[in-house]
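Hi there,

I know you've been waiting on this one. I reran it after we fixed the sequence typo, so this is the corrected version. Both the input and the resulting structure follow.
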Amino acid sequence: MSTSIEELIKSLGVSVREAQYLINKFSLVKYAEYFTEEHRDSSTVVLTPRCISFPLPHTDEKIDVPIITLVNHSSLELEEVEIKMVVNTSWNPKSQQVEVDVSPMVPGNKLPEGDESSHNTTHINLKFKIGPSAEGIAKHVESYYQEFKRNNY
């Protein structure tokens, strides 16, 4: 099965964004575990921090400390994701696009780095930096098209 190199790069970019979204969502779910919900009425929810009681030294008193103050709040965040792949490419004269074979790889059916035994084999290294850079992706796709055209695919 083949798809355009543009669609491949777009799909990988979307997957990276979805991964960051899921990481953020997970962080919020974990953060919410440090609170209990109290529903006062149909439109009001009060969050109360879960606490641990600590005895005060030299007294019989205890102090309630919210657990959330005792844990690390840093969440995982992707700064950049690097994807390296070896694909078979071909030029589709009908669509005027470079296409890549996206068929599942059979285990062991992988070319070693630097093996250029097939002129249709292309090594692709993509590095996605998380942030608003859709314009940057489009520039890279265009530069790939120009390179493939120069190589007469």
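Quick highlight: The CA atoms of residues 88 and 121 lie 5 Å apart.

Best,
R. S.
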